[in-house]
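A.,

Following up on our hallway conversation. Structure tokens first:
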């Protein structure tokens, strides 16, 4: 009597174990799960109807995933190949589906929050860079008139000592002084400045013995650039 009971119990467990694990072997070239993960060259090896999991072979590796993450058409095929689930199994699967949906929604919310935080950090960094660039540009523009004034003085000194009046009776220039007004920007010309000034020279008169003096008022046009030295456009004698 005891032996018959043991045999009956062993047979019942074998039937239940066979009903829990269902071998299917369904190949899929591309299997996209409901959480967005894409599995290439995947094979659905078996289904555990009691645990609600599916055993997949992906790139020769075995992976276990929740049954609820499979696409609906795959789940329909598996349901057709699997024994009918008990009421308890259906309730458990439904509860697991709900938990998986909540988990997926929580992950999506965390990803969205992380993306927003990263975007906010990028915007803050860009604002910082823009502010720094604006400050550097303002400092460069503020220093530009001084740069123009220094350049204008150097060029005016050289011009009236060595270049001005090449066909006149001016021989060797013994002394030359220039006096410049502050640079003024030229309206309508980005980076262009006007500098007015006066030149005083003492020189050897090449056509008569002795020395002579001259005075001339002039105007200079100077073009400036961001990453280049200023350029003399013109010296105009008034």
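Then the amino acids I'd put at each of the 238 positions:
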């Amino acid at each position: 009597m005891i032996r018959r009971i043991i045999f009956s119990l062993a047979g019942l467990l074998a039937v239940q174990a066979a009903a829990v694990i269902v071998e299917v072997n369904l190949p899929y070239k591309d299997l996209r799960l409901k959480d967005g993960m894409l599995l290439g060259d995947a094979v659905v090896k078996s289904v555990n109807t009691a645990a609600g999991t599916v055993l997949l072979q992906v790139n020769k590796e075995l992976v276990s995933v929740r049954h609820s993450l499979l696409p609906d058409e795959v789940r329909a095929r598996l349901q057709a190949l699997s024994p009918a689930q008990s009421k308890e199994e259906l309730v458990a699967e439904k509860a697991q589906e709900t938990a998986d949906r909540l988990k997926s929604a929580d992950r999506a919310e965390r990803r969205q929050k992380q993306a927003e935080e990263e975007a906010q950090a990028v915007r803050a960094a860009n604002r910082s860079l823009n502010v720094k660039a604006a400050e550097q540009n303002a400092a460069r523009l503020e220093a530009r008139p001084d740069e123009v004034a220094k350049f204008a003085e150097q060029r005016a000194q050289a011009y009236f000592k060595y270049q001005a009046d090449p066909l006149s009776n001016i021989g060797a220039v013994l002394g030359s002084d220039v006096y410049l007004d502050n640079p003024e920007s030229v309206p309508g010309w980005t980076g262009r400045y006007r500098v007015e000034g006066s030149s005083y020279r003492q020189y050897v008169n090449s056509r008569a013995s002795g020395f002579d003096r001259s005075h001339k008022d002039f105007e200079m046009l100077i073009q400036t650039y961001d990453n280049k030295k200023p350029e003399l456009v013109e010296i105009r004698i008034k």
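Residues 144-237 form one domain. Curious whether your intuition agrees with the design.

B.
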